[in-house]
Amino acid sequence: MNILFIGDIVGKLGRKVLKEHLEDIIHEYEVDFVIANGENVTHGKGLVKEHMLELISLGIDVITLGNHAFAKKELFDYINDYDEIIRPANFHQEFPGKGSNVFKFENKTIRVTNLLGSVFMNMNVANPFDTLKNIVDSDDSDIHIVDFHAETTGEKYALGYAFDGKITALIGTHTHVATVDNRILENGTAYQSDVGMVGPNEGILGVDKEAVIKKSWTGLPSVFQVMEKGEIIFSATLLKIDDYTNKVKQIERIQKIF
Ligand SMILES: [Fe+2]
Hints:
Elements: E1 2-6, E2 8-9, H1 11-28, E3 33-37, H2 49-57, E4 62-64, H3 75-78, E5 85-86, E6 100-105, E7 108-116, H4 128-137, E8 143-149, H5 153-162, E9 169-173, E10 183-184, E11 190-192, E12 197-200, H6 209-218, E13 232-241, E14 248-257
Parallel strand pairs: 1-3, 2-12, 3-4, 4-5, 7-8, 8-9, 9-11
Antiparallel strand pairs: 1-13, 6-7, 10-11, 12-13, 13-14
């Protein structure tokens, strides 16, 4: 089977490109199951219910989140009504929603887990290694895909190698920049530090560049605006999984500019 993992969808342009092209991409790559990171969907931060329903209607089976998961407060009210949404598993247990869930595709069970990194994230989260170990220890699904939403490649590699052979794939999100290190680790786990993003291609990580340059240069406060015009990048990773072993045969980067 083929699983498509779509990188962080950013704002209006991210939604637009999926509306116009996701159906064709699913067809072109013979995709069976779609996972997408949706923490930047609504104006760059968070996910309102209307946009979540739109993504599901386009063929996305599971939406993962990250540090901006609850930026739009309405997620607190609706997350428990939709099994398709996964928030970081290492958030405090007081947060509503699930951090890992199992889905069915034909005769396969697919677990999807979302985790937040602990390095440079400034968030109050539990240790991602311990959290994933607890999930893996009690897991009997056929396939287990982990979205590790984290800042540093070092932490991403450490988690990937620590669970090599114990999970099907670890795909990084959050940096919005696709890395060219897609590979299958020695014990069979497919790995990529970051899948990249779906959204504005002409700013800085999807945001209007002047404000980012000003803040980076001077330290003065500035308001970041998600870009709503211009070229759009679509970044995803395709996992081709062997039907007998449930292991990834091939991990392929997909990048398109619209
Ligand atoms: Fe993020």
